[in-house]
Each structure stands twice: as C-alpha cells, then as structure tokens.
C-alpha cells in the first residue's frame, strides 16, 4: 500500500518538472500574486482529474489477464518515458484562459483542462491499473503535483529558472523506463516465459 503512494508521488513529481501545468502555475502566480488560492485550485483540480484517471485505470485493468495487463503497462510506461524527454510548452490558448475569475476558480478550471491527456494523467491511469490501492495512487499523484508546482507558485520565476530541467526530465524518463521494464518482466513471468 505504501509502495503505491511513494511510487506515484515520485513518478509524478519528477514528470511534472517542466510540464505545461508547471508553466501554467508560473503564469497564474505572476497574474494573481495570491499563492494560497492557486495552491488550493491545484489541489482540487488534481484530485478530481487524477481520481477520474485512477478509476479509468482500475476499470481497464479488469479487462485483461495479469500477464496482458503488465505487457500493456510495459509498453505504456516506455512510451511515457520517451514522451517525458520532450519538453512541454504552454500554448497561447492555455495562457489566454487566465482571466478575471479569481485565482481559485481560474486555477481550478485551467489546471483541470491542462491536465486532460497530459503525461501525468496518463501515468495516473497506468499506476492505478498497476496498483490495487486507488486512493493511495491518487493521493500520491496529487502529492507529486504539489511537490512540483507549489514551489513554483511560491517562488515564482526564481525556482523555475534555476532547476536543471534536462537532468530532471532524464530522471523522470528513467523512472518511467524502469517501471516499464519491471512491468515487462512481470508480463513475461506471469505468462510463464521467464
């Protein structure tokens, strides 16, 4: 149970560094200069988004044998490892969503939308499919988002400019790749091949 929390936290915290939602957190911090409503919006948006992703992951896991599920997870984790090496950029449409609705509501809406189809949401689906503890996975992925985004909100541009993003992206990619290799090993073991 603790493993699902810790792995989910670590994977998402690393994957989120330099992600578009982290860039969005920076834009929101610069726009509103009210860190706590922004942090609260991040928490609520992430909990909602990742809970939905986790439920999907648990649901999808029920359709496959354990060996097939691990084979699918292996491929998915390796694909996300490669995706993690591609830096995100905040596009004009997402930046323009920062309007005059108040820090909390704007953060809630923009974070929820920005997280749709994002690598951390996909990772949440995969982690929920891999682990039996949905709430621990969602708590871990949410904590990972907060570990990566709260310092950006609080410190603004200072922290974002000084982080070794290339190294962090490589570490996140390596973590996803290790999960992929482990899932591949489990698939082979469960299929009786290894």
TrEMBL record:
Transmembrane segments: 38-61, 67-86, 98-114, 134-155, 167-185
Signal peptide: none
Subcellular location as annotated: Membrane
Record key words, sorted: Membrane, Transmembrane, Transmembrane helix
Pfam families named among the record's database cross-references: GDT1 (PF01169)
Keyword Nucleotidyltransferase attributed: no
Membrane topology: Multi-pass membrane protein
Family: Belongs to the GDT1 family.
Name of the protein in question: GDT1 family protein
Organism: Serpens gallinarum
């Amino acid at each position: 149970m603790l493993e699902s929390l810790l792995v989910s936290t670590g994977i998402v915290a690393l994957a989120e560094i330099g992600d578009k939602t982290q860039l969005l957190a920076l834009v929101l911090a610069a726009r509103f200069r009210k860190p706590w409503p922004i942090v609260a919006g991040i928490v609520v948006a992430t909990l909602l988004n990742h809970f939905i992703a986790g439920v999907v992951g648990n649901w999808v896991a029920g359709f496959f044998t354990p060996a097939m599920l691990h084979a699918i997870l292996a491929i998915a984790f390796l694909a996300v490892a490669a995706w993690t090496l591609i830096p995100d950029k905040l596009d004009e449409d997402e930046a323009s969503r920062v309007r005059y609705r108040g820090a909390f509501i704007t953060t809630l809406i923009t974070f929820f939308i920005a997280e749709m189809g994002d690598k951390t949401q996909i990772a949440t689906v995969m982690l929920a499919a891999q682990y039996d503890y949905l709430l621990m996975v969602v708590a871990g992925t949410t904590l990972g988002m907060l570990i990566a985004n709260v310092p950006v909100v609080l410190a603004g541009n200072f922290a974002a400019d000084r982080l070794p993003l290339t190294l962090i992206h490589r570490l996140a990619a390596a973590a996803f790749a290790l999960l992929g290799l482990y899932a591949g090993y489990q698939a082979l073991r469960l299929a009786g091949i290894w």
